[in-house]
Amino acid sequence: MAVRVNCSVQNTFCLFNPPLFSLRYRASHFKLKTQLHFPQNPSRRALFCACATSQNSEPFVLTTPLYYVNAPPHMGSAYTTIAADAIARFQRLLGRKVIFITGTDEHGEKIATAAMSQGSAPHDHCNLISQAYKTLWKDLDISYDKFIRTTDSKHEAIVKEFYSRVLAKGDIYRADYEGLYCVNCEEYKDEKELLENNCCPVHLKTCVSRKEDNYFFALSKYQKSLEETLNKNPNFVQPSFRLNEVQGWVKSGLRDFSISRASVDWGIPVPNDKTQTIYVWFDALLGYISALTDDQDQPDLRKTVNSGWPAALHLIGKDILRFHAVYWPAMLMSAGLSLPKMVFGHGFLTKDGMKMGKSLGNTLEPNDLVNKFGTDAVRYFFLREVEFGSDGDYSEERFINIVNAHLANTIGNLLNRTLGLLKKNCQSTLVVDSTMAAEGNAFKDNVERLVDKASVHYENLSLSSACEAVLEIGNIGNVYMDERAPWSLFKQGGTASEAAAKDLVIILETVRIIAIALVPVTPSMSWRIYAQLGYSKDQFDAATWRDTKWGGLKADQVMAQPKPVFARIENQAEVEDKEVAVGKTAKSKGKLKQAQEVAGA
């Protein structure tokens, strides 16, 4: 991402307020012009739902940050990517052509240092960590379309062409830069934000004094343009309270920022000065565009932009909001390119009330969660329990309780007991179409109302609310089952038995609809449900959001044998209780055997 996942908002504050360093402009410094550059189609609405129509031929391009490879992925990285995947899958269900971009940010001093500490070359280190991300994304059912690495040759070509275009615009100049530098943050710090002994408040390490001859981007030139863009397009930054933050930063005054490093070898060389490398953020942000390149012999910025830019959605953590909502649009304006339609800054995941991050050493390992609880459980918990845009906290006890109650009980058990009754009383075969079974039944209308509600929530990025609406379908399905009590009706025979058979069709149609509506969140469990309803994998893969309409199940359709689609997770207390119970049973059997032997003697 341009994603310095472990950077805090405070890390970048010095770039918007006068830092304690000297900036001496050389004779080569150009005179700033007062011309403004506005994004194309500034009146175009950027509401997420506005572009979620199958009639729109534009590809829906969404991105995660490009994750920094100083260490293996953690749950914070996984959360962003799971959310992006849910959005991508929903858009595909609507019939949109989706280009889902993720990748790794692999340049910078910190990467070289991390590689050296492991006794490896920077490129080998990047290969290892980048592959770790790909492996985790596979384990989490992440359906990305493009995986860009900033060490890819096609990315370097796009970065150099973009840099040259901005240089030709007169927006890059050379100057001396002196200040206190945090190697871990890879940026200069304002002395006012540092702790005692000039320690970085994030990494608690002493910042070093540095003086460099760097190239600068004229961010201040785009002050008015950014203010007008944010005022005219309030949906550019979401949620709305993040927009307020960005507007405050811009209004406080923008300062030009350094876009090169003289002391960093591991990076893309500045096109007009091989003694300097391009600053990692100026480099990595362009991964959103370079990812769109096809396998071109000679990557070309214009052709690449025509392959899908602008992005419909940048999905990021709130700590890198400034880079995406201020620096990035100014860079695009300078290059004459359209701005992304929306930047959405979500909150942090916390553990023990603290933000999780590689640099803080308190990460929640996603691989451990997947291995312990399974992919569906991990995806569902974080999308359901964290209100998208706000911070959320992880608790293993709550994790187990939520996924057991929602996935194993409300949905899984409803399907299992219905299929069991169908097998016992109808030879696992549907006696009537689901449309005919629900004629004159208000229950069908309630299901359709909740489906529509879930759709709106998905479109508005309210992922937790979408899960809630789908779960409510399961809740009313269970209530319907309990009120109708088909097991009793079957015992009565005659018309009561016929009514019971229809009730089973209604419940199974309800679960089928739940399966489609949960595809963005729990794709693997949705497929297992569909398989139990007698569908093939091809039929499941071809399903769209239109299949959430009532009427999918048909008469004489044969269901599979009932088996749990989501195994209930046992918490530690339950495991210990079972072990105690097994121990008591074994002890009891031993005493009984001993008594029998005594009696026999």
UniProtKB/TrEMBL annotation:
Origin: domain of life: Eukaryota
GO molecular function, one term: ATP binding
Domain named Methionyl-tRNA synthetase anticodon-binding: residues: 435-574
Top EC group: ligase
Keywords annotated in UniProt: Aminoacyl-tRNA synthetase, ATP-binding, Ligase, Nucleotide-binding, Protein biosynthesis
Annotated catalysed reactions: tRNA(Met) + L-methionine + ATP = L-methionyl-tRNA(Met) + AMP + diphosphate
Domain Methionyl/Leucyl tRNA synthetase stretches: 194-419
SUPFAM superfamilies listed in its UniProt record: Anticodon-binding domain of a subclass of class I aminoacyl-tRNA synthetases, Nucleotidylyl transferase
Protein EC: 6.1.1.10
GO CC list: chloroplast stroma; mitochondrion
GO biological process terms, semicolon-separated: methionyl-tRNA aminoacylation
HAMAP family hit by this protein: Met_tRNA_synth_type2
Annotated family: Belongs to the class-I aminoacyl-tRNA synthetase family.
Protein name stated in the entry: methionine--tRNA ligase
Provenance organism: Clitoria ternatea
Lineage, broadest ranks: Eukaryota, Viridiplantae, Streptophyta, Embryophyta, Tracheophyta
